[in-house]
Write a structure and sequence with these properties.
The structure holds two protein chains of two kinds.
Chain A lengths: L1 E5 H11 L4 E4 L6 H12 L7 E4 L3 H13 L4 E5 L1 H6 L1 H10 L4 E6 L13 H5 L6 E4 L3 H18 L3 E6 L7 E5 L3 H7 L16 E2 L8 H30 L7 E4 L6 E5 L3 H14 L4 E6 L1 E3 L3 H7 L5 E6 L9 H9 L7 E6 L9 H13 L5 E3 L4 H13 L6 H8 L9
Chain B lengths: L47 H16 L4 E5 L3 H6 L11 E3 L5 H14 L6 E7 H6 L2 H10 L4 E6 L40 H7 L4 E6 L3 H12 L5 E6 L3 H4 L6 H10 L6 E4 L2 E5 L8 H5 L15 H18 L8
Parallel strand pairs in B: 1-2, 1-3, 3-4, 4-6, 5-6
Antiparallel strand pairs in B: 5-7, 7-8
Helix pairs in contact in B: 1-7, 3-5
Classes of the chains: A alpha/beta, B alpha/beta.
Chain lengths: ~425, ~325
């Protein structure tokens, strides 16, 4: 059914359609509307046979999820930013135990400086935690990925993180085609756990494993992600058959057929990038986009294939590997290992919610086409401000707090979105 | 009881099990006991925690009609019971992390409710470090929501699994690897203490109890009672650690009894925040008698005894005796 709705509420409705049995909720912006929506639906009896638990921290949220999932209940939670960091120990644990929990991450920057706006630092910090990480481009895709996510998680018995851009998607009202309960029931079978705490068949979960078997356990986690590389496209096809919509998959190429230059990105910024590229195409630039939906597992072969015919590429990413450059870019570079003739750029953009405009993308992409763009470029960086702060630090020993110095240099009284 | 019990086990003042009617005998004495924590585990000789856990979980199994799931915090109990690929647990059991046993148990209890299995009872267990320190947030959350979980803390007053470091349950004056008997104030500094049973009572949860491995019948009875109650339950069981306390392995029960008899470890029950029962001291002993056999207190009894520290510990015991009414009137 087509409806005009908020991204968070659409996701809440999609999760409800998946018949969750335990939902753990702890508030953190910009994820709050999702769990609020679900809490309301549980209270109103719209989601039947479901426990909604208000926990005291994100660490507890994931821990309760571990308990309920291990006891055989379909389990969901959502978080963002600091919340994801606060639950990290349990995030790794859920993956290590192979528990098919589905979690939405409403992507948001990490402090310090504290910042509630969107970027991908939070999810990217967990890229090696063992969860599958799917990135939604639109609210429609966020809805669809949750439905696919439960099936994927339960088939592989491993947790799935559905990442959607905070505010940009979670708080945006747009058209969403909401599936019916019958459709979802037909697509998503009942949860049949591979391991379950059951007094009728007692087993121990979470034993201490020494050097003699630890490598094997870790290898199996990797092997399962390799299985996911096959299962994700397969579920995408099944989803298309059932719902008539192309959603999910590993990567998604746009105008790549004759492209000489490729832009690689993930999440909602793909929309702006596609618009920019359409305009550049009109000017005769042979440029295309590869959107990455599955960041973990990382589709090395697919990315390599998609970029087989380009001479240069640029990764636009909302995350920064401090001291290195790009997080996504490092992964893309691995996919392109050995292609020495290709020129690669990284554009760090949209950190802490800075708007990524078409004007700025045009400028950056032109630099990629001409080869003049620096290899690691910070989009719309206020170089005057950073240079002033660096100069200040050179001359004054007690130079003071960094963020405040930047704000003072920029003559900003309070934070504002540029 | 239809007969007057006249005989006690020699030197213990504990009623001999065989003298009781069958229905009054210890669960552990029953051939039908579940052996929930089975033989083959790697606990040290004289481990109070292994003993306490075995009695507690067997009692819980009996009370729950064998419908029990246990969540375990990281710690000695977890490590010695499940060296991969072996396990000593005969109950469905999960270990997740050090600080989240209470939350994991909450999740299991929620799953049981939603799955329509209200008969399945849930126990969470951990040591004092996993309970009073790192797991405290999750524990308080479980209390506050009144989740249907019995949390059992096996309290040996330090982080024994990592090599005897101080926890918030370590008493003042005690030596640990991080509170060495050096300097002007040797051993653990005398702080304000942290009584998690009292904090649990402040949450007004349905049931709080303390116990020691010196009175296993009492431990069994309290676990049985707790399993029969819906909502959040908390038990703190004193389990001496021969390794960490520097005590002889055959003295585990004796030390647990002395801790209770000197007043340092009050044994009581509380319901909805009100104390409903106290195990009285049977023959009061000075704290010295409890402290001396433990090498963690050896620096108090050196060439120049630290009388001031011993007096401080005695004062703590006396405060407990008064606060909890541990002595019958006129006995003090």
């Amino acid at each position: 059914m087509l409806k005009q709705t908020e991204g968070s509420h659409a996701v809440a409705e999609a999760v409800a359609l998946c018949r969750p049995e335990v939902i753990c909720a702890y508030p953190i912006s910009p994820q709050t509307h999702i769990v609020e929506g679900l809490g309301e639906m549980v209270k109103a009896g719209e989601i039947k046979d479901c426990e909604f638990i208000n926990v005291e921290s994100e660490f507890a949220a994931m821990s309760v999820a571990i308990g309920s999932s291990a006891a055989g209940a379909r389990t969901y939670t959502a978080t963002a930013s600091q919340g994801l960091l606060f639950m990290v120990e349990a995030v790794y644990n859920a993956a290590g135990l192979g528990l098919p929990i589905v979690m939405t991450v409403a992507n948001r920057a990490l402090g310090a400086p504290i910042n509630i706006w969107n970027d991908h630092s939070d999810s990217m910090s967990q890229r090696d935690c063992g969860w599958i990480q799917l990135f939604a481009e639109t609210n429609q895709e966020a809805v669809d990925l949750h439905i696919q996510g439960f099936k994927l998680a339960e088939e592989l018995s491993m947790p799935v993180m559905v990442c959607m851009d905070g505010f940009i998607l979670t708080h945006a009202y747009e058209r969403v085609d909401m599936p019916t309960q019958e459709q979802v029931d037909a697509f998503l079978p009942k949860f049949e756990p591979r391991q379950v705490l059951d007094p009728a068949e007692p087993l121990s979960i979470g034993a201490m494993v020494g050097p003699e078997a630890y490598t094997e356990v870790r290898y199996l986690a990797h092997a399962k992600q390799m299985q996911a590389l096959e299962l994700i496209p397969q579920l995408g096809r099944e989803f298309q058959e059932a719902f008539g919509r192309d959603s999910g998959g590993l990567i998604r190429s746009y105008r790549m057929d004759d492209a000489e230059v490729a832009v690689i990105a993930l999440g909602s910024v793909l929309g702006t990038i596609k618009d920019t590229i359409d305009e550049m195409r009109e000017q005769g630039v042979k440029i295309g986009v590869v959107g990455i939906c599955s960041f973990r597992p990382f589709p090395l072969a697919e990315v390599r294939e998609a970029l087989a015919r380009v001479r240069s590429y640029v990764v636009v990413e909302k995350s920064l590997a401090v001291g290195l450059g790009g997080v996504v870019a490092s992964n893309v570079r691995m996919a392109l290992a050995g292609r020495l003739h290709m020129r690669g750029h990284t554009v760090i953009a949209g950190l802490g919610g800075r708007a990524i405009t078409k004007v700025s993308l045009h400028r950056a992409f032109a630099g990629v086409v001409s080869g003049e763009l620096e290899r690691v470029h910070f989009l719309d960086l206020d170089t005057n401000a950073v240079n002033a702060v660096l100069e200040h630090e050179k001359t004054v020993r007690r130079s003071g707090p960094i963020a405040e110095n930047v704000l003072r240099t920029m003559r900003l009284v309070g934070a504002k979105i540029l | 009881m239809n007969q007057q019990v006249k005989f006690y086990q020699t030197g213990t003042r504990t009623v001999g099990n065989r003298l009781l009617a069958p229905e009054q005998r210890a669960i552990q004495a029953d051939i039908e006991r579940t052996n929930s924590l089975n033989c083959g585990h790697r606990a040290c000789q004289g481990c109070g925690e292994a003993l306490g856990a075995r009695y507690a979980i067997d009692a819980a199994m009996r009370a729950a009609n064998n419908q029990l799931i246990a969540a375990n915090a990281t710690g000695c109990l977890e490590v010695f019971s499940t060296p991969y690929p072996e396990t000593s647990w005969q109950v469905p059991w999960i270990h997740s992390l050090f600080g989240n046993a209470a939350a994991v148990a909450t999740g299991i209890a929620a799953a049981m409710r939603v799955k329509g299995k209200p008969d399945v009872r849930v126990v969470a267990q951990g040591g004092d470090g996993g309970t009073t320190d790192i797991g405290f947030g999750c524990l308080s959350g479980m209390f506050e929501r009144n989740d249907d979980v019995l949390y059992i803390c096996y309290d040996n007053e330090a982080y024994m699994n990592t090599g005897v470091q101080r926890s918030s349950a370590t008493p003042g004056g005690a030596r640990t690897a991080t509170t060495m008997p050096l300097g002007e104030h040797p051993g653990n500094p005398f702080g304000q203490g942290k009584s998690v049973p009292l904090i649990a009572m402040a949450h007004e949860i349905p049931y709080v109890a303390t116990a020691t491995v010196a009175d296993l019948r009492d431990l069994e009875a309290k676990v049985t009672k707790a399993i029969g109650i819906r909502g959040a339950k908390y038990m703190q069981v004193l389990v001496p650690c021969p390794l960490g306390w520097g005590a002889a392995s055959q003295d585990t029960i004796k030390l647990a009894r002395l801790a209770k008899e000197c007043g340092l470890f009050p044994v009581f029950e509380a319901e909805f925040g009100e104390i409903t029962g106290v195990s009285k001291i049977r023959s009061k002993v000075p704290v010295e008698e409890y402290l001396r056999p433990q090498r963690r207190y050896a620096h108090l009894f050196g060439k120049t005894p630290r009388a001031e520290d011993i007096a401080r510990i005695q004062a703590k015991a006396d405060r407990n005796i008064k606060k909890f009414g541990l002595l019958d009137q006129g006995e003090a």
